[in-house]
Hints:
323 residues; alpha/beta; eight-stranded parallel beta barrel; two-stranded antiparallel sheet
Amino acid sequence: MNRYSAERPLRPRRSCLAVPGSNPRFLEKAQQLAADQVFLDLEDACAPLAKPEARHTIVKFLNEGDWGTKTRVVRVNDWTTEWTYRDVVTVVEGAGANLDCIMLPKVQDAQQIVALDLLLTQIEKAMGFETGRIGIEAQIENAAGLVNVDAIAAASPRLETIVFGPADFMASINMRTLVVGEQPPGYPADAYHYILMRILMAARMHGLQAIDGPYLQIRNVDGFREVAGRAAALGYDGKWVLHPGQVEAANEVFSPSQEDFDHAELILDAYAWHTSDAGGRKGSAMLGDEMIDEASRKMALVVSGKGRAAGMSRTSTFTPPEG
Protein backbone atom coordinates (compact mmCIF):
# COMPACT_ATOMS: atom_id res chain seq x y z
CA MET A 1 0.00 0.00 0.00
CA ASN A 2 1.32 3.44 -0.89
CA ARG A 3 1.61 5.26 2.45
CA TYR A 4 2.44 8.92 2.88
CA SER A 5 5.86 9.11 4.55
CA ALA A 6 7.02 12.70 4.07
CA GLU A 7 7.23 14.94 7.13
CA ARG A 8 3.86 16.56 7.78
CA PRO A 9 3.58 20.35 7.94
CA LEU A 10 3.71 21.97 11.37
CA ARG A 11 0.76 24.33 11.14
CA PRO A 12 0.07 27.12 13.64
CA ARG A 13 -2.90 26.10 15.78
CA ARG A 14 -2.91 28.60 18.64
CA SER A 15 -6.63 29.18 18.15
CA CYS A 16 -8.84 26.44 16.69
CA LEU A 17 -12.27 27.90 15.97
CA ALA A 18 -15.32 25.63 16.08
CA VAL A 19 -17.94 26.52 13.46
CA PRO A 20 -21.30 24.71 13.07
CA GLY A 21 -21.40 23.20 9.61
CA SER A 22 -25.13 23.80 9.36
CA ASN A 23 -24.96 27.57 9.94
CA PRO A 24 -24.06 29.57 6.79
CA ARG A 25 -23.95 32.86 8.73
CA PHE A 26 -21.33 31.51 11.13
CA LEU A 27 -19.38 29.93 8.27
CA GLU A 28 -19.28 33.31 6.53
CA LYS A 29 -18.20 35.18 9.66
CA ALA A 30 -15.49 32.66 10.55
CA GLN A 31 -13.55 33.56 7.41
CA GLN A 32 -12.97 37.07 8.77
CA LEU A 33 -11.67 36.04 12.20
CA ALA A 34 -7.98 35.80 13.09
CA ALA A 35 -8.08 32.13 14.14
CA ASP A 36 -5.15 29.97 13.04
CA GLN A 37 -7.49 27.06 12.34
CA VAL A 38 -11.19 26.60 11.70
CA PHE A 39 -12.98 23.32 11.98
CA LEU A 40 -16.36 23.05 10.34
CA ASP A 41 -18.36 20.76 12.57
CA LEU A 42 -20.64 17.92 11.52
CA GLU A 43 -20.73 16.34 14.97
CA ASP A 44 -22.09 17.92 18.18
CA ALA A 45 -22.82 21.31 16.61
CA CYS A 46 -25.19 19.72 14.05
CA ALA A 47 -28.55 18.22 14.93
CA PRO A 48 -29.06 14.72 13.45
CA LEU A 49 -31.63 15.90 10.92
CA ALA A 50 -29.31 18.74 9.80
CA LYS A 51 -26.23 16.61 9.13
CA PRO A 52 -26.93 15.53 5.51
CA GLU A 53 -27.51 19.09 4.32
CA ALA A 54 -24.62 20.40 6.42
CA ARG A 55 -22.19 18.18 4.50
CA HIS A 56 -23.06 19.96 1.27
CA THR A 57 -23.02 23.37 2.97
CA ILE A 58 -19.48 22.69 4.18
CA VAL A 59 -18.37 21.61 0.70
CA LYS A 60 -19.75 24.85 -0.74
CA PHE A 61 -18.00 27.06 1.81
CA LEU A 62 -14.68 25.22 1.53
CA ASN A 63 -14.70 25.59 -2.24
CA GLU A 64 -16.08 29.11 -2.50
CA GLY A 65 -14.97 30.77 0.75
CA ASP A 66 -11.84 32.84 1.33
CA TRP A 67 -10.10 31.16 4.25
CA GLY A 68 -6.77 32.91 3.79
CA THR A 69 -3.94 31.07 5.52
CA LYS A 70 -6.21 29.28 8.00
CA THR A 71 -5.90 25.54 8.44
CA ARG A 72 -9.19 24.11 7.16
CA VAL A 73 -10.54 21.12 9.08
CA VAL A 74 -13.84 19.26 9.12
CA ARG A 75 -14.93 17.33 12.20
CA VAL A 76 -16.91 14.29 11.13
CA ASN A 77 -19.02 12.06 13.35
CA ASP A 78 -17.38 9.20 15.24
CA TRP A 79 -17.22 5.63 13.96
CA THR A 80 -19.93 4.36 16.32
CA THR A 81 -22.54 6.38 14.41
CA GLU A 82 -24.19 5.79 11.03
CA TRP A 83 -22.93 9.11 9.63
CA THR A 84 -19.13 8.82 9.53
CA TYR A 85 -18.42 7.23 6.15
CA ARG A 86 -20.89 9.51 4.36
CA ASP A 87 -19.42 12.56 6.12
CA VAL A 88 -15.95 11.67 4.87
CA VAL A 89 -16.95 10.65 1.35
CA THR A 90 -19.15 13.69 0.70
CA VAL A 91 -16.73 16.27 2.14
CA VAL A 92 -13.49 14.86 0.72
CA GLU A 93 -14.88 14.03 -2.73
CA GLY A 94 -16.53 17.43 -2.90
CA ALA A 95 -13.85 19.67 -1.42
CA GLY A 96 -10.71 17.60 -0.90
CA ALA A 97 -8.55 20.08 -2.78
CA ASN A 98 -9.55 22.79 -0.30
CA LEU A 99 -9.32 20.73 2.88
CA ASP A 100 -6.31 20.26 5.16
CA CYS A 101 -7.47 17.75 7.78
CA ILE A 102 -10.30 15.55 8.97
CA MET A 103 -10.94 15.56 12.73
CA LEU A 104 -12.19 12.27 14.15
CA PRO A 105 -13.94 12.59 17.51
CA LYS A 106 -14.23 10.03 20.32
CA VAL A 107 -11.24 8.01 19.16
CA GLN A 108 -10.96 4.91 21.34
CA ASP A 109 -8.31 2.78 19.63
CA ALA A 110 -5.75 2.86 16.86
CA GLN A 111 -7.91 0.88 14.43
CA GLN A 112 -10.37 3.76 14.18
CA ILE A 113 -7.54 5.96 12.87
CA VAL A 114 -6.37 3.21 10.51
CA ALA A 115 -9.91 2.90 9.12
CA LEU A 116 -10.10 6.65 8.45
CA ASP A 117 -6.66 6.59 6.82
CA LEU A 118 -7.74 3.77 4.49
CA LEU A 119 -10.97 5.52 3.53
CA LEU A 120 -9.13 8.78 2.82
CA THR A 121 -6.58 6.94 0.69
CA GLN A 122 -9.31 5.29 -1.41
CA ILE A 123 -11.07 8.62 -1.98
CA GLU A 124 -7.82 10.39 -2.88
CA LYS A 125 -6.92 7.71 -5.43
CA ALA A 126 -10.41 7.68 -6.91
CA MET A 127 -10.50 11.47 -7.21
CA GLY A 128 -6.93 11.92 -8.41
CA PHE A 129 -5.86 13.84 -5.29
CA GLU A 130 -2.36 13.63 -3.87
CA THR A 131 -2.33 10.49 -1.75
CA GLY A 132 -1.78 11.20 1.94
CA ARG A 133 -1.98 14.99 1.79
CA ILE A 134 -5.09 15.29 3.97
CA GLY A 135 -4.16 15.03 7.63
CA ILE A 136 -6.01 13.58 10.60
CA GLU A 137 -6.72 15.10 14.01
CA ALA A 138 -7.61 12.58 16.72
CA GLN A 139 -9.86 13.71 19.56
CA ILE A 140 -9.54 11.90 22.91
CA GLU A 141 -12.84 12.01 24.77
CA ASN A 142 -13.06 9.02 27.08
CA ALA A 143 -11.04 6.68 29.29
CA ALA A 144 -10.46 4.12 26.52
CA GLY A 145 -8.99 6.78 24.25
CA LEU A 146 -6.62 8.00 26.95
CA VAL A 147 -5.48 4.49 27.89
CA ASN A 148 -4.79 3.78 24.19
CA VAL A 149 -3.39 7.20 23.30
CA ASP A 150 0.14 5.94 22.55
CA ALA A 151 -1.12 3.47 19.96
CA ILE A 152 -3.51 6.08 18.56
CA ALA A 153 -0.68 8.59 18.14
CA ALA A 154 1.33 6.00 16.18
CA ALA A 155 -1.56 4.75 14.05
CA SER A 156 -1.07 6.78 10.86
CA PRO A 157 1.47 9.08 9.20
CA ARG A 158 -1.49 11.35 8.45
CA LEU A 159 -1.86 12.27 12.11
CA GLU A 160 -1.07 15.91 12.93
CA THR A 161 -2.67 16.53 16.32
CA ILE A 162 -4.07 14.90 19.41
CA VAL A 163 -6.97 16.92 20.82
CA PHE A 164 -8.40 16.75 24.34
CA GLY A 165 -12.20 16.73 24.42
CA PRO A 166 -13.03 17.66 28.03
CA ALA A 167 -16.85 17.60 28.07
CA ASP A 168 -17.35 14.01 26.95
CA PHE A 169 -14.27 12.93 28.89
CA MET A 170 -15.59 14.41 32.14
CA ALA A 171 -18.88 12.59 31.64
CA SER A 172 -17.16 9.31 30.76
CA ILE A 173 -15.23 9.20 34.06
CA ASN A 174 -18.11 10.57 36.19
CA MET A 175 -16.26 13.75 37.13
CA ARG A 176 -18.41 15.77 39.52
CA THR A 177 -18.76 19.07 37.71
CA LEU A 178 -21.08 20.63 35.15
CA VAL A 179 -18.73 23.45 34.07
CA VAL A 180 -16.49 22.31 31.24
CA GLY A 181 -12.92 23.45 31.75
CA GLU A 182 -13.28 24.38 35.40
CA GLN A 183 -11.95 22.33 38.31
CA PRO A 184 -14.44 20.01 40.04
CA PRO A 185 -15.38 21.15 43.56
CA GLY A 186 -13.73 19.27 46.39
CA TYR A 187 -10.48 18.41 44.59
CA PRO A 188 -7.56 20.54 45.86
CA ALA A 189 -5.27 20.10 42.84
CA ASP A 190 -5.57 20.27 39.03
CA ALA A 191 -7.94 17.47 38.03
CA TYR A 192 -6.87 17.70 34.37
CA HIS A 193 -3.10 17.62 34.86
CA TYR A 194 -2.63 13.89 34.32
CA ILE A 195 -4.94 13.85 31.30
CA LEU A 196 -3.23 16.81 29.64
CA MET A 197 0.26 15.46 30.32
CA ARG A 198 -0.66 11.97 29.12
CA ILE A 199 -1.90 13.35 25.81
CA LEU A 200 1.10 15.66 25.54
CA MET A 201 3.62 12.86 26.05
CA ALA A 202 1.98 10.69 23.38
CA ALA A 203 1.83 13.60 20.95
CA ARG A 204 5.45 14.64 21.44
CA MET A 205 6.71 11.07 21.25
CA HIS A 206 5.37 10.94 17.69
CA GLY A 207 6.08 14.54 16.65
CA LEU A 208 2.44 15.64 16.84
CA GLN A 209 0.83 18.80 18.13
CA ALA A 210 -1.29 18.75 21.29
CA ILE A 211 -4.45 20.86 21.43
CA ASP A 212 -6.57 21.63 24.50
CA GLY A 213 -10.35 21.52 24.20
CA PRO A 214 -12.97 24.21 24.71
CA TYR A 215 -13.88 26.47 27.62
CA LEU A 216 -17.65 26.76 27.51
CA GLN A 217 -18.13 29.97 29.54
CA ILE A 218 -17.61 31.93 26.35
CA ARG A 219 -18.06 35.42 27.84
CA ASN A 220 -15.60 34.82 30.66
CA VAL A 221 -12.41 35.75 28.80
CA ASP A 222 -10.39 35.98 32.01
CA GLY A 223 -11.40 32.43 32.88
CA PHE A 224 -10.46 31.32 29.37
CA ARG A 225 -7.04 32.94 29.70
CA GLU A 226 -6.41 31.18 33.01
CA VAL A 227 -7.34 27.74 31.68
CA ALA A 228 -5.49 28.29 28.40
CA GLY A 229 -2.46 29.52 30.32
CA ARG A 230 -2.19 26.23 32.19
CA ALA A 231 -2.18 24.25 28.95
CA ALA A 232 0.31 26.63 27.34
CA ALA A 233 2.63 26.36 30.35
CA LEU A 234 2.73 22.58 29.93
CA GLY A 235 3.69 22.94 26.27
CA TYR A 236 0.37 22.66 24.41
CA ASP A 237 0.26 24.23 20.97
CA GLY A 238 -3.22 25.73 21.10
CA LYS A 239 -6.80 25.55 22.29
CA TRP A 240 -10.28 25.41 20.87
CA VAL A 241 -12.22 28.66 20.71
CA LEU A 242 -16.01 28.77 20.57
CA HIS A 243 -16.55 32.51 20.34
CA PRO A 244 -14.84 35.38 18.49
CA GLY A 245 -13.96 36.92 21.87
CA GLN A 246 -11.70 33.95 22.68
CA VAL A 247 -9.64 34.11 19.47
CA GLU A 248 -7.37 37.02 20.42
CA ALA A 249 -6.84 35.60 23.90
CA ALA A 250 -5.81 32.19 22.53
CA ASN A 251 -3.41 33.71 20.00
CA GLU A 252 -1.80 35.75 22.75
CA VAL A 253 -1.59 32.98 25.35
CA PHE A 254 -0.06 30.43 22.96
CA SER A 255 2.49 32.86 21.52
CA PRO A 256 5.74 33.70 23.32
CA SER A 257 6.14 37.18 24.74
CA GLN A 258 8.24 39.56 22.68
CA GLU A 259 10.91 39.45 25.39
CA ASP A 260 11.08 35.64 25.34
CA PHE A 261 11.09 35.53 21.54
CA ASP A 262 13.95 38.03 21.33
CA HIS A 263 15.89 36.13 23.98
CA ALA A 264 15.42 32.82 22.15
CA GLU A 265 16.67 34.35 18.91
CA LEU A 266 19.72 35.76 20.70
CA ILE A 267 20.51 32.35 22.20
CA LEU A 268 20.35 30.72 18.76
CA ASP A 269 22.61 33.35 17.20
CA ALA A 270 25.06 33.35 20.10
CA TYR A 271 25.32 29.56 20.24
CA ALA A 272 25.82 29.32 16.48
CA TRP A 273 28.65 31.86 16.69
CA HIS A 274 30.40 30.37 19.73
CA THR A 275 30.39 26.87 18.21
CA SER A 276 31.84 28.12 14.92
CA ASP A 277 35.51 28.52 14.01
CA ALA A 278 35.24 32.28 14.52
CA GLY A 279 33.75 31.81 17.97
CA GLY A 280 36.30 29.27 19.13
CA ARG A 281 34.31 26.05 18.66
CA LYS A 282 33.00 26.22 22.22
CA GLY A 283 30.41 23.75 23.48
CA SER A 284 29.19 26.24 26.06
CA ALA A 285 29.55 29.98 26.38
CA MET A 286 28.18 33.04 28.13
CA LEU A 287 25.38 35.24 26.85
CA GLY A 288 25.48 38.14 29.25
CA ASP A 289 25.19 36.53 32.68
CA GLU A 290 23.70 33.31 31.31
CA MET A 291 25.55 30.16 30.34
CA ILE A 292 24.23 28.62 27.11
CA ASP A 293 24.88 25.19 25.60
CA GLU A 294 23.20 22.64 23.32
CA ALA A 295 20.30 22.20 25.74
CA SER A 296 19.78 25.97 25.69
CA ARG A 297 19.69 25.87 21.90
CA LYS A 298 16.97 23.18 21.90
CA MET A 299 14.83 25.14 24.34
CA ALA A 300 15.32 28.32 22.31
CA LEU A 301 14.27 26.52 19.12
CA VAL A 302 10.88 25.76 20.67
CA VAL A 303 10.20 29.37 21.64
CA SER A 304 11.61 30.73 18.39
CA GLY A 305 9.56 28.31 16.31
CA LYS A 306 6.33 29.28 18.03
CA GLY A 307 7.12 32.96 17.63
CA ARG A 308 7.92 32.65 13.95
CA ALA A 309 4.77 30.60 13.36
CA ALA A 310 2.85 33.45 15.03
CA GLY A 311 4.43 35.95 12.63
CA MET A 312 6.60 37.65 15.25
CA SER A 313 9.66 39.72 14.35
CA ARG A 314 12.67 40.14 16.58
CA THR A 315 13.58 43.53 18.01
CA SER A 316 17.20 42.78 18.98
CA THR A 317 20.37 41.58 17.24
CA PHE A 318 23.35 39.54 18.36
CA THR A 319 26.76 41.19 18.31
CA PRO A 320 29.76 38.84 18.70
CA PRO A 321 32.00 39.79 21.62
CA GLU A 322 35.25 41.55 20.78
CA GLY A 323 38.53 39.81 21.25
